[in-house]
Structure formats: C-alpha cells, structure tokens
Model the fold of this input.
Amino acid sequence: MQLFLIAFQQPIPFGISAAIVTLMLGIVLRSAMTAEGGATWVRKITNPNAKYLFAFLFIGWAVVFGIGLQLVPHTGANSPYGGIGLIALFSGFFIMMGFLWAVIGE
Done:
C-alpha cells in the first residue's frame, strides 16, 4: 500500500523520477528509430577495432568495481553501497554486451 501512496506522500521526488524515466524512454525510442552509422562517436565504436575499446572498458570496470567495492564496508542492500552495486551491475552488462557485439559482429 505504501508504494501506491508515494506519489502523494513525496510528490517532488516522484515527479523527478517520473521525468527521468520519461527522458530515458525518449532516448531509447529515438535511438531505436535512427539509422545506423550517423554520428562520429557511433562510427568509432562500430569499427573493427572497437573490441579493444570494450576490452579496456571491461578491465577498467572490473578494477574499479571489483577492487573498489571491496574497500567499503558492507552493511546490507539498503545502504548507499547497494546503489553502487546496482550501477556496477548495469554498467558491466552494457560493457560486456558491447564487447560481445564488437567481437561477434566482426
């Protein structure tokens, strides 16, 4: 019941989060509707050497989140470090999908 009342209990944070979600959905929709290979940064990550870029990104991700999260105290999922872990989960997924796409797409 508390989840359904959050919009009325805290309207400003709810509105900010709704705006961020709307922005993310707009970005995803626009990227799905555009043709491939338009911008300069797209050409840089879609060339055959992109596998090296994603390999270095993955190594950096593993060092930052693998070693970095071991240095902070673990107090449970409701701590600020749970948010960092969630960011690590999503960023690692997208880096690995980019790496697989660069290697297989060659």
